[in-house]
Specification:
Order of helices and strands: HHHHHHH
Largest sheet: none
Helix content: over 70%
Number of domains: 1
Radius of gyration: 17 Å
Number of helices: 7
Length: 173
Amino acid sequence: MIATILLVARFRRPGWVWTGAVTAFAVHVTVAVAAGSVLGLLPDTLVQAVVAALFATGAVVLFRSAKHPPEEAAEDHTVIGSTARAAALGSFGMILVAEWGDLTQLATASLAARSGAPIATGIGAWAALASVAAIAAAFGRRLVERFPIQRINYVGAAVFAGLATWTLVDLAM
C-alpha cells in the first residue's frame, strides 16, 4: 500500500501505477503458490508448524514496524517519467523488487500449502493485493492522513497473530 501511494505521488498516473503493481503482484503470487504447493507435499504436522511459524513471524515483523515506523520521507513532489509506459514499468519494477519475500508472499505460500487449493488461494491473494493497490492508488494519501500507518500495522500484527494461534490450535487437535 505504501509503495503504491509513493509511486502515485511520483508518477501522477494512478491507473498505470496500479497496472504495473498488479502485474508484479501476479508474479509474486505465482511464486508463492508454487512454493506453497511444494511445502504442501510435506507431512501435515510439519506444514502446520511451518505455517504457524510464518504467521507468528509476520505478526512480530508488523508489530515491530508499528512500534518503530520508518521515518517519513521528505516531501518530495518530484514527478518523474510522465508517460504511461514509464509509470507502469517503473511501478512493476519497484513492486517486484521491493515486495519480494514480504509478509503477503509468505502468507500466500502458507495458505496455499495449508488449503489444498493453491489456484483458488492464488486468485484470492492476487485479488486482495489488487484491491489494496487500487485503494492506495485512488485514496492512499487521504487514507494515511486519517489512519496512521502504525495503527494499520498493529491491526495486521493482530490478524497474523490470530492466524498463528488458530494454526497452532488446529495442530494440537
